[in-house]
Amino acid sequence: MTDSQRIAFFEQQAEEAYSRIYDATSSTEAAARYSDAKEALYSAIEVAQQLGQEETVKRLETRLAAIKAVFRSQFS
Q1: Alpha helices in 22-53 (DSSP H)
Q2: How many domains does the chain have?
Q3: Residue 50 buriedness (CB in 10 A; 0-12 / 13-18 / 19+)
Q4: What is the pLDDT confidence band of residue 57, given thresholds at 50, 70 and 90?
Q5: CA–CA distance, 9 with 49 (Å, rounded to integer)
Q6: Which pLDDT belongs to residue 73?
Q7: Cα first-last separation, the chain
Q8: Domain around 35
Q9: Which residues have C-beta within 8 Å of that of residue 31, sequence separation ≥ 6?
Q10: Helix, strand or coil for residue 16?
Q11: Euclidean distance between CA atoms 27 and 31, whole angstroms
């Protein structure tokens, strides 16, 4: 798996976890999916930083901030 594929994999994992937040049947489950989404994005950000892909880092950090904001406004 190339580094670009790793970033894409982590992004996909984050988006899938984020979408599962809305399928959660409890606040505990929603929080777990939120945590999964954050961890996947942190992993993608780490790879992008190691590669010096600042544009990708900024895009991923923006997406992470958006997910955090939505979760906090809807589930906290």
Answers
A1: 27-50
A2: 1
A3: exposed
A4: very high
A5: 16
A6: 95
A7: 37
A8: 3-75
A9: 75
A10: helix
A11: 6
